[in-house]
Design goal:
CATH superfamily: Nucleoside phosphorylase domain
Strand content: 25-35%
Radius of gyration: 18 Å
Strand order of the largest sheet: 5-9-8-6-10
Structural class: alpha/beta
CATH architecture: 3-Layer(aba) Sandwich
Distance between the termini: 50 Å
CATH topology: Rossmann fold
Number of domains: 1
Number of strands: 10
CATH class: Alpha Beta
Number of helices: 7
Length: 266
């Protein structure tokens, strides 16, 4: 039996798409002619409403309807940044929003989400910076040539790690496993990918990395461990996970600004 591979159409990543994200930007500007994110240092993607609400309570920010979800434009220490949430979990949802953000001028993005650990050494509230993402998501294969991994921007990842250290966080750095089938994660996969060095399972990192690479943008990812696939127990909301997410968002904002100052995009 011949098993299909993704994408079904070979070489798709190199073919032009019928729909162009630039169409989205033009549509937004029919309503708001001045709509642009090109003057922002970057964007943070979040997936938990309570995390976005916490950020809004701290920074306020102007809400816009320029992309799917709740996009907040904020100023932090005289710098402009964007935070977007409320669009749902998973690589397809994150990719749609990221494409729209990029079409409006964003050139750097950090995805901040939760993950399940693949090792017992990682407990709720542990922070992990993803250095490579196993592409078990499906979406990334529509953006990049066939391959096992999608990679973040080394420079932006370096700034992210530095910003976390500046906040007294000690993140682990390592590979992640991005999968779209959270209720089909098997013990065999957990053991295999853990042996390959993957620390976590998440739903978005590989997709975000793939879209950013395809579009010539920079991306990084930091994940707060919420539960475990290595030592499975009933999941519960843990205060350490919540605190870790807040630290991750704050560090991501700082990292985006540091990266923009170091190497501004044209």
């Amino acid at each position: 039996m011949i098993h299909p591979v993704l994408p079904l159409h070979p070489g798709k990543h190199a073919l032009p798409a019928v729909a162009d994200p630039a169409e989205h930007a033009r549509h937004v500007r029919t309503r708001v002619p001045e709509a642009t994110l090109a003057d922002h240092d970057g964007a943070v993607l979040v997936y938990q409403d309570r995390v976005l609400n916490h950020m809004v309570a701290d920074y306020g920010g102007r809400r816009t309807d320029w992309v799917r979800g709740n996009l907040r434009l904020i100023e932090r220490r005289g710098r402009r940044l964007a935070v977007c949430g409320g669009f749902g979990p998973g690589a397809p949802a994150a990719a749609l929003v990221l494409e729209q953000l990029l079409s409006l001028g964003i050139r750097r993005v950090i995805t901040v989400g939760t993950a399940a650990s693949l090792h017992t050494s990682l407990t709720p509230g542990s922070l992990v910076v993803c250095t490579r993402a196993l592409r078990d998501d499906g979406l990334s294969h529509h953006y990049l040539p066939p391959g096992r991994y999608a990679d973040p921007s080394p420079g932006l990842t370096r700034h992210l790690v530095g910003a976390l250290h500046a906040r007294d966080a000690e993140p682990r750095r390592g590979k992640g496993w991005t999968t779209s089938a959270v209720y089909r994660e098997t013990a065999a996969e957990v053991a295999h990918y853990g042996a390959l060095g993957a620390l976590t399972a998440d739903m978005e990192a590989a997709g975000v990395f793939a879209v950013a690479e395809h579009r010539g943008a920079d991306a990084a990812a930091v994940l707060a461990v919420a539960d475990s696939l290595a030592d499975r127990r009933p999941r519960r909301d843990h205060p350490r996970t919540e605190a870790a997410l807040h630290t991750a968002v704050e560090a991501s904002l700082a990292a985006l600004t540091a990266a923009a100052r170091e190497q501004p995009h044209d």
